[in-house]
Design brief:
By secondary structure, the protein is α/β, with parallel strands linked by helices. The protein has two domains: about 190 residues, Spore Coat Polysaccharide Biosynthesis Protein SpsA, Chain A (Alpha-Beta Complex); about 100 residues, no CATH class. Helix content is about 40%, strand content about 15%. Strands 1, 2, 3, 4, 5, 6, 7, 8 and 9 form a nine-stranded mixed sheet that branches. Helix 1 links the parallel strand 1 and strand 2.
């Protein structure tokens, strides 16, 4: 099993209940990682709880400032350099029964391939449905203008990327999420997550993928290695509306994508936020104002965040 040669890095923040469940299921499946590194940024009360959980499940515990990107980087610097693989995992992922066995088969088949670098799990979202806003994003006009695509795992010239979930077959993708992913350690050597994306580190996985793509590596999602991701994050919708535009603007500038198409896609995103209000999503109004303020900020403040 690949886990015997893998460093598992889990960032966490004030969520001991989720972390305990995640570590418990790994032990239940008897998947023994060479090392598990938990990088915690919890407050004083939860810190003690998380530290105790790590002791029970034989995980290495470290405490840092709150930043998902910084926490993952911290784990990368501390990992065993002899391990062949590095796995990043959010603290609330739920694995299907045969996910690791199916992932192990894929890793064995790509073991000697020097181009395949990242291997992602298949996110199963049973609540997904193609609503009117998804249809707008995946419309002919959106695809023609390169604003969006109906292909999963694409990164458009606008800097916007498409979701990856509910795949029926294995899929080579432009980007790969860091919620549950395995990398060949040799191919991500001296590569780190961008800490300038804020404490929430929104789009840090997109940035990491684009950075790695400069080395002409490939990413693939294993459709048989299934996971569920509750993604129960309490967030301020206005602040998220800001982040999803400002952080993406930063990446568009960083990787020299098409700034004009980025603004078109951003306007489309803000209108989707606004019209979501009429479907009963009251919080979408705050997200809309965040989107609009972010667009104005990007237009008149071209400095790096």
């Amino acid at each position: 099993m690949f886990t015997k040669h893998c460093s598992l890095i889990i960032p966490t923040f004030n969520r001991p209940v989720f972390l305990r469940r995640t570590l418990k299921q790994l032990k239940f499946f008897d998947y023994n990682f060479q090392e598990i590194i938990v990088v915690d940024s919890s407050n004083a009360i939860n810190r003690k709880i998380v530290e105790n959980i790590c002791f029970i499940y034989s995980a290495k515990y470290f405490h840092t400032k709150p930043s998902v990107a910084f926490q993952r980087n911290y784990g990368l610097k501390l990992k065993n350099k002899r391990n062949k693989y590095v796995m990043f995992l959010d603290d609330d992922i739920v694995f299907f029964k045969k996910s690791f066995l199916n992932m192990n088969k894929m890793l064995l088949s790509f073991k000697r391939d020097k181009y395949f670098c990242g291997f992602g799990f298949n996110l199963i979202n049973k609540n997904y449905h193609l609503n009117i806003f998804e249809k707008i994003k995946k419309s002919f006009l959106s695809k023609f203008l390169n604003l969006y695509s109906d292909e999963p795992g694409c990164v458009m010239r606008s800097g916007w990327h498409t979701k990856i979930e509910n795949l029926k077959n294995d899929k080579i993708v432009d980007w790969i999420y860091s919620a549950a992913v395995i990398y060949k350690a040799e191919l991500i050597k001296n590569k780190y997550f961008d800490t300038s994306l804020g404490t929430y580190s929104y789009l840090e996985d997109l940035d990491f993928s684009l950075n790695l793509k400069k080395k002409n590596v490939k990413f693939i999602i294993n459709s048989s290695a299934k996971i569920k991701h509750p993604n129960l994050i309490e967030r301020n919708d206005y602040k998220f509306g800001l982040l999803e535009i400002i952080n993406r603007h930063y990446l568009v500038k960083k990787y020299k994508l098409n700034i004009f198409i980025f603004y078109l896609a951003s306007v489309l995103r803000s209108f989707i936020s606004l019209f979501s209000l009429f479907t009963g999503k009251i919080n979408s109004l705050s997200r809309f104002f965040g989107n609009v303020c972010a667009i104005i900020y990007c237009l008149f403040n071209m400095k790096k965040l």
